[in-house]
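Table 4 source record.
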Amino acid sequence: MIKGKFYAVGVGPGDPDLISLKAINTIEKCDVIALPVSGGKNNMALDIGKPYITDQELLHLDMPMIKDGEKLREFHRKAADTIGSLLDEGRNVAFLTLGDPTVYSTVMYVHKFLTDDGHFTEVIPGITSFCAGAAALNITLCEKDEMLHIVPATFTDLKQLESLPGTKVLMKSGKTIGKVIEAFRDSNAMLVENATMKNQRIFKDFSEIKEDTGYFSLVYLKDEK
């Protein structure tokens, strides 16, 4: 029997119009659509992919938002084993994820297990949230020989980032967003919350932020030079 193939599919930053044709084609041809479940009521990746899902099986995989690395590895291993069994049956599986699979995405842990196990795997890129946020701000991320630094907002020494040359983008804000806002309130930092989504908010001046913003918040620090 010919084995199936696993696709890590990026569906873009949130606006349904920003999913790629390749992602749509991949969803439509796959037998199973895999989705991470972390306790939230809505699955945005599913909402974006839903128009292209007909009679495919939906596979919900437990991916809790916890920091325990060993326990997370167990969930990723279990998900890979479940998907691997489907691939062995000759079924193609598309795992949907917001943004791009290669940027801070859970799907790549599963992808690595499956690749190491000898399965056929492929990554379908998607528009990243930090590119979408820059577009919302109507700015460039980098020009000429400028550097671009993509940093998790959980980085311990936030003020140290101001000394880095070029543009800095802080992602994965989560519960640390209040700390980030305080750290850069007097700088030239800008923030985009829920980039491209219906509830998108833009703050070009941190003094305008009166409360913590949501999980999908991106902070931009441009080099003042």
